[in-house]
User: Fold this.
Amino acid sequence: MVTKEKIESFIEKIPPAPKVLNETFALLRAGELTKAAKVAEGDLALKSYLKNIVNKPIYGFANEVSDIGQIFGILGVSLARQSVYNYMVSLLSPKDWSLFKLNSHLFYELQANLSKKWQIILEHLKIEDKETYDAITLLPASIIVAEALFKEKIDDVNLLRTTKAIDYNTILKRLCGVDLFDICSQIAQKWGMNRDISNIVQAASGVKPSRDEKIDLLGKWMHLLLFYELSNPLFIKAGLNDFIDFQIDYIGDIYEEFSSLMEIE
Assistant:
């Protein structure tokens, strides 16, 4: 149904970062928020996206924030980088969704929620590496990939899920030998992210633990965060709760800590 060649073809369609984004990233890597904001002003679509994201309820601002300099100042370097990566992911988002009951508003909501909560987790773990903050941006990308790959065979995919009650990630693995986390790694490589980012995302599958203790710990937190977020009633309604199979045994040692951090009753 879905060939490796089709996956590779889709990945190849992912555009490299345009000049404005490359310049913005370079300045953010150097910690130059003010200069990065001035460059970002040159991309009206990016500006609109950032304004949309930072004014989501999860950021908790009473008044609308619209100035890019102010937005970057509020976000700080790590979240500003995340937001620009999220914008690149959003460029792949379909206009009309078939597999998942999503729209741009819900998809941006998911991106914002994952980014903000990943920041909370990393601050809790006292991790400051900026590229580790970037890792969370790849998970929404895998949702877009699933949508694109299964769109033409939507009836077959729904039939397979009805008869066998398996998640989308398992379907893709069975059909072509790679899963959605493998695809995230391919996207990370295409965007020049370091190897650790790919390893964290792979560990976040819940079935491919890392031998590196730190990477495996981050994979556990990411796996739990993804499942927790996709269990939001809005995303259950969109069909995202069937995205991956939750590996309770994998995250058992951090579940209480996670629950306390997210204030889960």
In short: DSSP finds 16 helices and no strands in the chain. The chain has a mean pLDDT of 86.
